[in-house]
Amino acid sequence: MIKLENVCKVYNNGRANQTTALKNIDLEIKAGEMVVITGPSGSGKSTLLHILALMDEPTSGSYLFDGEMISGMTDRQKSEIRNRKLGIILQDYGLVDELTAIQNVELPLMIAGKRKRAARMAARNALRMVGLSEKERQKTSRLSGGQRQRVSIARAIVAGAKLILADEPTGALDSVAAGDFMELMTGLNRNGVTVVIVTHNETVANQCKRQLRLVDGEIIP
Ligand SMILES: Nc1ncnc2c1ncn2[C@@H]1O[C@H](COP(=O)(O)OP(=O)(O)O)[C@@H](O)[C@H]1O
Ligand SMILES: [Mg+2]
């Protein structure tokens, strides 16, 4: 599903504040895996996740995702793949707070040109899967942190993502909500979705079969 070869990421190349965030990353993740990425602050975890999510580009090296060479694609091609195959759960959830829960979940389907009725049905189904049916008409600004995250999960899965990526998903949650999050992820993974989670949380990390550790931009064995 994922193959990174010799991926490097340098921010501010050639300037005084040049930072090498990733060094020669070789990484293969197979379809159906559930992988956790740990490592100290500043070790390159978010940079790696953003590259995997097609939100950022490596400075050098190649990225093969689901049989397609990402390196060299246009932004338009990448956003099309992102919309169709990826579910991304970011730290700030990235919700549109003026919209209701169900409108947020529908958004990627509307952007993809789905009909309103089909989009609404899929969004309702996704909200049911994350246990948030009763909040569908609430504006997301009025939901709790855990509930806002569940809206972002529903949005991530509504289009049938093959790969779910999450950056520090439990950082702002209490242990019960963190447990619920992991239950949702393991359930999706059991249904064949590939899951990659960046986390500091040991309990979360220990629920994933494969653990990768980043230190100073390198994956250490
Ligand atoms: N947009 C950016 N511009 C410049 N430097 C950045 C940027 N994003 C991250 N960095 C730097 O890259 C390194 C890795 O950052 P990051 O991937 O956010 O690490 P982590 O998520 O593990 O804390 C850090 O030294 C950070 O300061
Ligand atoms: Mg980070």
The main pleated sheet reads as:
6 strands, mixed
What order do the strands of the largest sheet run in, or round the barrel if closed?
Answer: 6-7-8-3-9-10
Q: What is the CATH architecture annotation?
A: 3-Layer(aba) Sandwich
End-to-end Cα distance, whole Å, is 21 Å
**CATH fold type:** Rossmann fold
Ligand inventory reads: adenosine-5'-diphosphate, magnesium ion
Strand content is 25-35%
Q: Quick one: overall form?
A: globular
The number of helices is: 7
Portion of residues in helices?
25-40%
Overall mean pLDDT: 96
Question: In a few lines, what is going on in this structure?
Answer:
Helix content is 35%, strand content 26%.
Question: What this model shows, in words?
Answer:
With 221 residues, this protein is of the alpha/beta class. It has one domain: Rossmann fold (3-Layer(aba) Sandwich), CATH 3.40.50.300. It has 7 helices and 10 strands. The strands form 2 sheets. The chain has a 6-stranded mixed beta sheet with strand order 6-7-8-3-9-10, sandwiched between helices. Strands 2-1-4-5 form a 4-stranded antiparallel beta sheet, with helices on one face. Helix 3 packs parallel to helix 5. The radius of gyration is 17 Å and the shape is globular. It binds adenosine-5'-diphosphate and magnesium ion (MG). The site of magnesium ion has 2 residues, from helix 1. Adenosine-5'-diphosphate (ADP) binds next to strand 2 and helix 1.
